[in-house]
Write a structure and sequence with these properties.
heterodimer, A: mainly beta, 5-stranded antiparallel β-sheet, 4-stranded antiparallel β-sheet, 19 strands, 0% helix, globular, B: mainly beta
């Protein structure tokens, strides 16, 4: 591990001893950085955005359609393959495949789903948050925004918030049908938050797998295991954040 | 790219030439942030099997924003030993028994919606829940 760099702990944690997951950001680790975000109102198949990153990026789409009734409402929910799989992302574009009218917002991040990455682990044992005065910490506002803003949408980073720190990205391919088990070893010592993406054979884009039919994803304190039966490409993104602890 | 801001390159990468992928903080590329109070865990055990055309609320969290935020919810189906990002239909396409998570202008809600037919008896089954409500627009 390099002994130079920058490390900012989350509010209340001692930056000299805190666990990795108690860090707001560090020069040791990647974060989920937003490349582009926009709202949308779409009903016919179309390209929603051309990102031109030339890789398949991590992304999330949120929309207004109730997956049970199919009706629009004033709410927001994540699109996953279980209920709203019509938002695949390619290496250049985010697409909409149609089916109904959707309003919502998408986020595209600067993280390649097909380039394996493993972050260093420094401190995996949790510490306790103490009481901290609000005037301690770091705040980096977006360009043109007041750094004293109380609206956290206006910040690039803020130590009152936790950022999504990326621990691992692992990509693999399944070239034949039948049950395949792929195990990603993370060794974090806790069950982590993770996302699974899938690009089925013959398709051009990844979708948030959520939990597709016939796919079984299981997290343990050392691994994430995905069982699936479909040919295609898969990617797991694991965050430095626990599943069972706040 | 903006010529103002803060840039923190990853260890071993020169800060001048580092791309966003090689940085932990990069000008014009905000991180996805969540306030501490809006990240949490919970658990729910069904005390009976919900009937047809019912909605069971497993979780409601007031997010405190005056907008509809983006959020993700990951659940562990302890009985099956399965993790899934919501929404998720546990009936495997044979009917509808769906976990749905969504944000309103005041709350994050996690519901279990059953239409017809009832495929799986969830009486006694436990579901562990982790949620992130982002300080970011969901619409």
């Amino acid at each position: 591990m390099a002994n130079v760099g920058i490390k900012v702990s989350r509010k209340g944690y001692d930056v000299t001893s805190c666990a990795d997951r108690e860090v707001a950001f560090s020069s040791l680790w990647k974060t989920l950085q937003i490349e582009h975000s926009a709202s949308f109102d779409i009903s016919a198949p179309d390209t929603m955005y051309t990102h031109n990153l030339n890789y398949y990026p991590f992304f999330m789409v949120f929309h207004d359609n109730d997956p049970v009734t199919g009706s629009a409402d004033d709410y927001s929910r994540l699109a996953t393959i279980s209920a709203s799989s019509m938002f695949p992302i390619t290496d250049t574009t985010l697409e909409f495949e149609g089916g109904s009218q959707y309003q919502g917002r998408y986020y595209i991040f600067r993280l390649d789903l097909e380039t394996d990455y493993t972050a260093d682990s420094v401190q995996t044992t949790d510490t306790s948050a103490g009481t901290t005065e609000d005037r301690w910490g770091i705040a980096i506002s977006k360009e043109g925004q007041d750094v004293h803003s109380t609206d956290f949408r206006n910040f690039v980073q803020h130590s009152n918030c936790r950022g999504a720190i990326v621990h691992m990205v692992e990509h693999w391919s399944i070239g034949s049908s039948g049950v395949h088990t792929h195990t990603v070893t993370h060794n974090l010592g806790y069950i982590p938050m993770f996302f699974v993406f899938v690009k089925l054979a013959g398709e051009t884009g990844y979708r948030n797998a959520g939990n597709a039919d016939d796919m079984l994803a299981v997290g343990t304190t050392t691994t994430v295991t995905v069982d699936d039966v479909y040919e295609g490409d898969y990617s797991v993104v694991i965050l430095k954040d626990t599943f069972l602890v706040q | 790219m903006s010529d103002i801001g803060v840039k923190v390159s990853l260890a071993g990468v020169g800060v001048t030439e580092a791309t966003p992928e090689e940085s932990s903080v990069y000008p014009g590329k905000p991180s996805l942030l969540a306030e501490e109070a809006n990240v949490g865990v919970d658990s729910y055990t069904f005390s009976s099997n919900p009937g047809t055309d019912t909605t069971t609320n497993l979780l409601t969290v007031s997010h405190g924003y005056d907008f509809v935020p983006a959020a993700v919810v990951l659940i562990e189906d302890v009985t099956v030993g399965q993790f899934t990002m919501l929404p998720h239909d546990v009936s495997g396409g044979l009917g509808t028994q769906m976990f749905v998570a969504y944000c309103t202008s005041t709350d994050l809600k996690l519901d279990f919606v059953v239409t017809d037919p009832v495929i799986r008896d969830v009486d006694g089954d436990t579901f562990n829940i982790k949620y992130w409500i982002f300080a970011a627009d969901g619409r």
